[in-house]
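[recover] target loaded
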């Protein structure tokens, strides 16, 4: 079973995740990992497949 969060709740979760994602980017970039590019690609794929499969 898949549960889809209401938009308002998803926005709240995304806001809570911001500092965690920012720290991951900082730590990964410091090790030479292209974290900003990876995150950009993830968001692009999420948008593409959310439209295709719903979500």
């Amino acid at each position: 079973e898949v549960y889809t969060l209401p938009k308002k709740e998803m926005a709240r979760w995304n806001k809570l995740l911001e500092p965690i994602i920012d720290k991951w980017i900082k730590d990964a970039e410091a090790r030479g990992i292209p974290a900003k590019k990876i995150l950009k690609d993830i968001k692009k794929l999420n948008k593409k497949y959310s439209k295709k499969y719903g979500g």
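[recover] notes: The chain has one domain: 7-53.
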